[in-house]
Amino acid sequence: MVIEYKGDESERFYHLVKHLFKNLDISDYHIYRGKDLERLQVFIAVPALSLQEADTQLQHISDALKTKMTKKWKCLPSLQLPEAYNIVTLPHKTV
What is the pLDDT of residues 23-79, one digit of tens each? Predict the structure, then answer.
C-alpha cells in the first residue's frame, strides 16, 4: 500500500505519518522522497490483500491524517481510480 504526498508541508506530513503509524501499530513501512522536495511516498508492507481490503485500510489511515492536515495525498491502490491510474512512481531516495 502506498500513500503519496505532494504539497508544501512534506516535513509536517513526514512527522505526522510516523506518529500516526506508531499509534496504529504499523511498523513495517518505508518513506522515500520523490524527485522534487514536495513529494513523499510512504510504502506500507502488508500481506497480500484484495483491492477492497487495501482500499478500506488506506481510507482509515487517510481519514486519520485528514484530522490533522489538509489532504494533499493520494492512496494507492484505490477503488475510486480507474485501474490504469493505480500506478506508483518509483521512489527517488530514502528519507
Answer: 999 999 999 998 888 899 999 999 999 999 999 999 999 999 999 999 999 999 999
Distance CA 63, CA 93 (A): 27
- Say how many C-beta atoms besides its own lie within 10 A of residue 85's C-beta: 11
34: enclosing H helix or E strand: none
Contact 39, 5 (CB under 8 A): yes
Read off the amino acid at residue 67: T
**CB 4, CB 36: distance < 8 Å:** no
Residue 80, C-alpha cell as written in the block:
475510486
Q: d(Cα 87, Cα 75) in Å, to the nearest integer?
A: 10
Secondary structure class of 29 (helix, strand, coil): strand
